[in-house]
Amino acid sequence: MKFVVRETPQTPADALRGLLTEAEKLTANLPGAGASAARLLTLLDEIDTEYRRLKGLGINLRPEETRLESLYASLRRRKARFLAELRAVGGLAALRAQRAPSREAWWWFLDEELAQERRRRLKRLGLLAGIAAVVLITAGVIMYLIARPDPVVLATSRNLNRAQDSILQGKPAEALRLMEENVRLDPQNPEWYIRLGVLAEITGDAAKAQEAFARGQDLTGDEAAFLTERAQYYNEVNAFERALADAGQAVRLRPDSAMAHLMLGRALAGLRRYPEAIAAYEQAVALAEKTDQTLYVMAKVELGYLLQSLPALTPAAP
Asked: Mind listing the pLDDT tens digit for each residue in 234-288?
């Protein structure tokens, strides 16, 4: 059956969707947010108020509920970073004192939640309540030294962030240079070769791309995994036809791969083949549900976002 695109009028949930989008962007960009992180607190208040209002009217909010659950989960995972950013405005406790929020608004009490989680972790490690403060400080220092990030990981991550910014700014050559630096810093990581190959290809250096892809595939050691990863990076640079070819082949090689179906969904959505994209996303959700909760949430959120942002799909006239 063929489909035509029909514009959808504004709905009562548009305001809620706008608030969710703003909150999702803030949560995804917490590092370095500083004082602007405080906006997330009042955004969540507004989202809660609007959600309750719409539910009271009997409006179906299933896609929005999926996004809201994901937003909550994402913020809880990043609460330590969130609290660190709030120090720029005096900390969460000071902001809470100004508002006196209800306990139902749990985001205003993330500092207490984090403290409780840390106490539980300490107990599981055998560090019982009542141990002298000096022992806790010593343990904290030891944990910091053990968990201190590898300088190579820090450098390559910084280069990746800068490369992604360069791509968004239309500077693929600069992104290519940064991935060449990552290959030099971390020559056993296939990710950098595959990203380098994608960037070399879109900047017209076919020989460099072929060489990088060959090395990346050798290090990956699995054709389906290599194709899935390359499809991911093609999607990032909007090379959707190439992403579709790789993701389609990866799905044929490994039909039980949730990640391959997710990359297929992204490529099809980028090409505006919406019914096929929805089917691919649904398959990714079904495959990831019992095997990878992080991937499950990612696929479900992307599917929900696609469904609510699409114009209506209705059968074309014969």
From this structure: 998 999 999 999 999 999 999 999 999 999 999 999 999 999 999 999 999 999 9
In Å, how far are 73, 160, 183 from 171, measured between CA atoms? 34, 14, 19
Q: What is the pLDDT of residues 133-173, one digit of tens each?
A: 454 566 555 555 555 667 888 888 898 999 888 888 889 99
Nearest to 182 by CA among 209, 213, 157: 157
Per-residue DSSP letter, 310: S
What distances in angstroms separate CA 290 from CA 254, 293, 294, one per listed residue? 17, 7, 11
Give the chain's end-to-end CA distance (angstroms, integer): 9
Nearest CA to 20 out of 86, 77, 65 is that of: 65
Q: pTM (2 decimals)? A: 0.55
Token duo for residue 74: 């994402």
Residue 19 CA to residue 68 CA, distance in Å, equals 10
Residue 140 and residue 147: Cα distance in Å, rounded?
10
